[in-house]
Specification:
The chain contains 23 helices and 15 strands. It has 506 residues and is an alpha+beta fold. β8 and β9 form a beta hairpin. The radius of gyration is 29 Å and the shape is elongated. The structure holds adenosine-5'-triphosphate and magnesium ion. Adenosine-5'-triphosphate binds next to β2 and α7.
Length: 506
C-alpha cells in the first residue's frame, strides 16, 4: 500500500464520509472510475463509495450531516446524493457468484476484497481508503496502477468468468480502450482477454438492447470513436450490434477498378465529426438550433457537449451503399441513391436497437438523406434557388448537415480534397448570404389552407395542397418574395386555372 498525496482526496466530501463512517462503525472506500481518473489526471465528478455494510445507511447518515437530499435505489441497494457539484453514489460491498444455469447472481454482503473481485477491470477495481488510520491509502490487489501505466485493459479474474457473468463487460472493455486512448498513451485489451471476447461475443445476445445502446453511445461520444468500432469489428461484437455496418467492409474490383472501402471511410467520418465538434466546443462556436415553442422562429444556443445523434448520423450516413452498389463499365462503381435508401433504413435500425423513434430518429434520417446535397449543389451550380431549397429541406439542422458534409470529404487525393473543400466553402458562403436575405430556414407558407377555403368557398380537397405547394415553390425558386401579398397574388392566378374565383368577387 502506498499513501496518496497529490490532492486526490481534496474534495471536502471525503473527510465527511470518513468521519461519518467511523461514527457508524463501518469501513468505506472510494472506488472505481474516480480513482482511475485521479491517476490519469482526468476530471471526474462522479464519486463511487463502497461500504463494508449498508451503503444506503451510510448515504443517509452523510446526507443528514451535509443537509443534502438522498435518492435511494432500494432494488440495487444503492443511494446517491449531490454535494457541491459532485454526485456521490454509495453501495454496500458485495460478493457475487453466478450459477451456470441461472442469469441471476447470488449476491451476499462482502468485504472490500470481494467487491473488487466482481469489478470489470483491474484499472476500475482500485480503491482509496477513507479510514482514519490509513486515510488515502491505495488498495490495489490486482495491479491496476501498473496496468494503467501500461495502458492495459485486464479483468481481475479469469476473463471467461468475468465476461460470462456479465457480457456487457466485453463492450465496456472496448469503451475504455476508446475512451482512455490518447495519441501519447494508447490502451489495449490484453491478448487473453481479447481472445476471450472473441469466444464469448455471441453472449451479447442475452443483454437488453438498452444496456448495449448505452455503451454504444458512450463509445460514439469518445474523442476517437473509430478505435472502439474497429475493436468491436475485430472481436466479432459488431455482428451482434450493428450487422449493417459490417456490410460496408471490403473493396470489390472489376476491370481493375476498385471503390472506396466504406467501413474505414465511415469510421473516418465519425472521427472527423468528433474532431470538428470538439474544436467547435473549445472555441464556443458550435451552434445549436431548436424550434421556438410557440412561434415560427428558432432558438440559437451554443453546444458545450458533443451531440450523440450527430455521431449516429455520421456512423450511418453511407449505410445505403451496399444495396445500391453497381458497376457500370463507363462510370465505374456507383452508389446512386444511397442517401435516400440509407435514410429509409434508419427507422428499422433504430427499432432493432430499441432506440427512440421520435425526433432523434427523424434527425438522423434527415441528415443521412441530405448528406450529399451540399456538395452536389456545386455540380448543379450554386444558384440562389438551389441553396434556398437546401435551407428549406434542412431547416434547423443545416449547421449539423454542413458539419457532416465537411467531415465526409476524405479522399486520399489531396488535389481532390482541396477542390471539394473549396467548393464546399462556396456553398457555405452562399448559404449565409441566402439565409441573411430570406427567412427560409423556418419556412412557413404565407398562404394557409383555411384562407384558401374561405376565399374560394370550397371544402377541404387536394387543390388546396396543390395551390400551397405552388406558392412554396415560387418562393423557393425566387419567383416571388416570401410575403403574403405576392403569395396571394400568384395563388389567385394559379387558382383561375382550376376555375376558382373568390366568393366575394375581389
Ligand atoms: P465513467 O467515467 O465512464 O463513468 P466508470 O469506471 O465510473 O467510468 P461506471 O459505469 O460509472 O464506470 O461504473 C463505475 C464502476 O463500477 C466501474 O469503475 C467498475 O468498477 C464498476 N462496474 C460498472 N459496471 C460494471 C460491470 N458491468 N461489471 C463489473 N463492474 C462494473
Ligand atoms: Mg462513473
Amino acid at each position: 500500500m502506498s499513501t496518496i498525496t497529490d490532492g486526490y482526496l481534496d474534495n471536502p466530501i471525503f473527510p465527511i464520509v470518513s468521519a461519518v463512517a467511523e461514527e457508524s462503525g463501518v469501513r468505506a472506500f472510494v472506488i472505481g472510475g474516480y480513482v482511475r481518473d485521479c491517476f490519469l489526471g482526468r476530471k471526474n465528478n462522479d464519486i463511487d463509495i463502497v461500504v463494508e455494510g449498508s451503503g444506503i445507511a451510510l448515504a443517509e447518515a452523510v446526507g443528514r450531516k451535509v443537509r443534502s437530499k438522498v435518492s435511494v435505489f432500494k432494488n440495487f441497494g444503492t443511494a446517491m446524493l449531490r454535494y457541491k457539484g459532485t454526485e456521490i453514489e454509495f453501495v454496500g460491498a458485495r460478493k457475487e457468484s453466478y450459477r451456470r444455469d441461472s442469469r441471476k447472481p447470488i449476491v451476499e454482503d462482502g468485504t472490500l476484497e470481494d467487491d473488487q473481485k466482481r469489478r470489470d477491470f483491474t484499472i476500475n477495481a482500485m480503491a482509496f481508503s477513507l479510514q482514519k488510520n490509513d486515510y488515502g491509502a491505495l488498495v490495489d490487489p490486482f495491479g491496476g496502477i501498473k496496468d494503467l501505466a501500461a495502458g492495459i485493459i485486464r479483468t481481475p479474474l479469469d476473463p471467461d468468468t468475468t465476461y460470462d457473468d456479465d457480457p456487457l463487460r466485453m463492450l465496456r472493455a472496448v469503451r475504455f480502450v476508446s475512451k482512455l486512448t490518447t495519441p501519447e498513451h494508447p490502451f489495449h485489451i490484453v491478448p487473453e482477454s481479447l481472445e476471450s471476447i472473441k469466444r464469448n461475443s455471441g453472449r451479447l445476445k442475452i443483454l437488453s438492447k438498452e444496456r448495449i445502446v448505452d455503451e454504444l453511445n458512450k463509445i460514439l461520444l469518445t474523442a476517437r470513436p473509430s478505435v472502439g468500432f474497429k475493436l468491436m469489428d475485430q472481436t466479432g461484437l459488431l455482428e451482434y450490434i450493428l450487422p449493417q455496418l459490417i456490410k460496408l467492409k471490403g473493396v470489390e474490383t472489376v476491370e481493375g477498378k476498385g471503390h472506396k472501402e466504406n467501413f474505414s471511410h465511415t469510421l473516418q467520418v465519425v472521427d472527423n465529426v468528433a474532431d470538428e465538434e470538439l474544436r467547435g466546443i473549445a472555441a464556443g462556436t458550435l451552434k445549436n438550433f431548436e424550434p421556438e415553442q410557440d412561434g415560427d422562429g428558432f432558438i440559437e444556443t451554443v453546444r458545450t457537449e458533443p451531440y450523440v445523434w450527430l455521431r449516429w448520423a455520421a456512423l450511418l450516413h453511407d449505410i445505403g451503399k451496399p444495396v445500391t452498389k453497381r458497376f457500370d463499365p463507363e462510370a465505374g462503381w456507383t452508389f446512386y441513391g444511397h442517401d435516400i435508401v440509407g435514410a429509409r433504413m434508419i427507422p428499422k435500425i433504430f427499432q432493432s436497437l430499441k432506440m427512440p423513434l421520435n425526433e432523434k430518429m427523424k434527425y438522423v434520417r434527415k441528415l443521412v438523406g441530405l448528406h450529399l446535397r451540399p456538395i452536389s449543389l456545386v455540380d448543379d451550380g450554386v444558384t440562389d434557388s438551389a441553396v434556398r431549397r437546401l435551407l428549406f429541406d434542412a431547416g434547423n439542422e443545416i449547421g449539423d448537415l454542413m458539419l457532416l458534409c465537411n467531415a465526409d470529404i476524405t479522399s486520399k487525393n489531396p488535389v481532390k480534397v482541396a477542390r471539394l473543400k473549396a467548393n464546399f466553402d462556396a456553398v457555405k458562403e452562399k448559404l449565409a448570404e441566402v439565409e441573411a436575405k430570406d427567412a427560409i430556414r423556418n419556412f412557413k407558407n404565407p398562404i394557409s389552407g383555411d384562407y384558401v377555403m374561405e376565399l374560394f368557398g370550397i371544402e377541404p380537397c387536394s387543390v388546396i395542397g396543390e395551390l400551397k405547394e405552388y406558392v412554396k415553390n415560387a418562393i423557393l425558386d425566387g419567383k416571388i418574395d416570401n410575403n403574403f401579398d405576392q403569395a396571394d397574388q400568384i395563388m389567385r392566378e394559379k387558382a383561375l386555372e382550376y376555375g376558382l374565383r373568390p366568393v366575394d368577387g375581389s
